[in-house]
Write a structure and sequence with these properties.
Layout (H helix, E strand, L loop, with lengths): L10 E5 L4 H12 L3 E6 L2 H13 L3 E6 L5 H15 L4 E4 L21 H28 L3 E6 L12 H21 L4 E8 L8 H5 L3 H7 L9 H12 L10 E4 L10 H4 L4
Helix pairs in contact: 1-2, 1-8, 3-4, 4-5
Length: about 270
């Protein structure tokens, strides 16, 4: 467990908590004294993450949640509040890539199936909206809080593939800024974390590909892929009182990708 616990006693709710960035964020929060609710649709993995946090001396529980369904949010948030007595932090980490069933990139926009667009938007945009919406009341009751949305550097950059993913993250970016203004009177801070190329289950096939992975690595000035913990530590900062005066911000954690001129070949690589 961490020697300096930056979230001691704060109740945190993490979506997408069964794997990748969400799981690592839940672990880091547990290390720092948070009372963690791990939420996901993957029950087995989500329960394993919660148990891992508990075994390490933290406090965590798993809760099934399909972030696309408002009825499930209406049940999940009150249950989390009943469990820990309050809600201080929400991390909207649940997300999908929009890849086709065979793992390939989706067609360009003129051939993009509406089903793909609606599925990706429902998780990556609507899910973030619903989480934000239903976190406000309990955070207001607690005297304030922190909402952290996992966005993407592809909400800042153009690309000629995977329009659904990029548009969904663009929506999450704009929502984050609007919500920051709307929630400021309640002392609820709303910020976005913008990962670059991070090694997760969602990206492992692309990063292992000799061409696509090589292009991404070449485009990263620090010359390595990020790890989920790199993003989780950014979430920790935004969730903590150290970020008390930070809202509506964009915390880019990308190894320098957005600081340099992107090559055309990079823009052709789907997320």
């Amino acid at each position: 467990m961490a020697s300096e616990k930056r979230l001691e006693g704060k109740a945190a709710f993490v979506t997408g908590g069964a794997s990748g960035i969400g799981a690592e964020t839940a672990r880091v929060f547990g290390e720092h004294g948070a009372l963690v609710t791990v939420a996901d649709v993957n029950d087995a993995q989500g329960e394993a993450v919660a148990q891992e946090i508990t075994d390490a001396g933290g406090t965590a529980a798993y809760q099934h949640l399909d972030t696309r369904r408002e009825a499930e949010w209406e049940k999940a948030i009150p249950e989390a509040v009943a469990r820990y007595g309050r809600l201080d932090v929400l991390v909207n980490a649940a997300g999908i890539s929009g890849r086709m069933p065979d793992g390939s990139a989706p067609p360009l926009v003129d051939g993009l199936p509406l089903e793909n667009w609606e599925k990706v938007m429902s998780v990556n945009a609507t899910g973030v909206f619903l989480g934000t919406k239903h976190a406000v009341a309990p955070m207001r009751d607690a005297g304030g809080g922190s909402i952290v949305n996992i966005v993407s550097i592809y909400s800042l950059l153009g690309s000629d593939s995977n329009a659904s993913y990029h548009a969904s993250k663009g929506a999450a970016r704009s929502l984050t800024k609007a919500a920051a203004i709307h929630c400021a009177p309640y002392k609820i801070r709303v910020n976005g974390v913008y990962p670059g190329f991070i090694n997760t289950e969602m990206t492992k096939e692309v990063h292992a590909h000799p061409l696509h992975g090589g292009v991404r690595l070449e485009a990263t000035p620090l010359a390595e892929f990020g790890q989920p913990r790199d993003i989780a530590l950014g979430c920790l900062y935004l969730a903590s009182d150290d970020a008390r005066f930070v809202t509506g911000s964009e915390l880019v954690i990308d190894g320098g990708v957005t600081a340099t001129a992107l090559k055309t070949s990079l823009l052709q690589q789907e997320v």
